[in-house]
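Write out the bound-state structure for iron/sulfur cluster.
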Amino acid sequence: MITYTLSPDFQFSQSNLYDFETCSYRFKLRYVDNLKWPAVEAEPIQEAELLAKLGTDFHLLVQQHLHYQQLPQADQAEMALEAMLVGDESHKLREWWQNYLCHPPAILQNATIYPELTFSTPLRGYRLTARFDVLAISPDGTFWIIDWKTSQRKPARQRLENHPQTLVYRYVLAMAGSPTLALPLKGGGLGGGEKWGISPDNIKMMYWYPAAPTEAEIFSYGPQLFEAHERRLSNLIEQIKDAVQNNNFPLTEDSRPCQYCVYRSLCKRGIKAGPLVEMETEAQAGLNISAFDWEQIAEIQF
Ligand code: SF4
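---
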């Protein structure tokens, strides 16, 4: 009998927890078997690729803008934008960029800004990791997690609130504020072994949509949510450890996610990819992540 094990250095993240919640078999194929499968997530392929490229370009553009915000904004915007405006996506990217310049999250104005940070914390014998597009500390002591969402539509607020990303990001940042945990730094720039003392009450998370720049979704935090999320995330990790130990990864009974899953032909759940226009908005936003150069990003463990 084949036995499966999760590597001791496996890192849990919002995306692999989301995969497990969606379909435990997908988690197995992707993270236990490390199986690459030659299929696309959505069709038409060109549009899906375009959306992915747009998302990646927008993230990079804002990242560069925030890194070099001491330069005159107009110069910086033009330099970065002109370098990226090639091909069919230029019109949409320019529109998103203008939306960002005209309606940036107000809290960025006076905040201390850290673009692209990765944090991780131990939980149930593994590390739980969160990659923030932006961490902004406002003068009143609020720690803002900002996530750029480049899907074509906004999901319902309740879906966002229950999404593993919204849980994981706030929880991991709150753990950074534990009075017993220091912040050894890899990569320079933030932490340096200091204790931040972040109370969950001082954490907020914002999803910001370049296609709907005045309709950001903001989620507060607090000790009760922190405890509830710790229970839910711990249970989820224990379920995964149990599934791995017993090699028990049932296929999802809901066939809808299969349309957008690269393993659908392997699972005999269809060959053709689902239509991009009907793809879940969270999954659309996820199309942009793969092309990031995470080597450039500082990692903070605690
Ligand atoms: S195709 Fe469906 S059943 Fe198979 S791994 Fe993907 S989501 Fe799970």
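---
The first helix runs from residue 14 to 22.
DSSP finds nine helices and ten strands in the chain.
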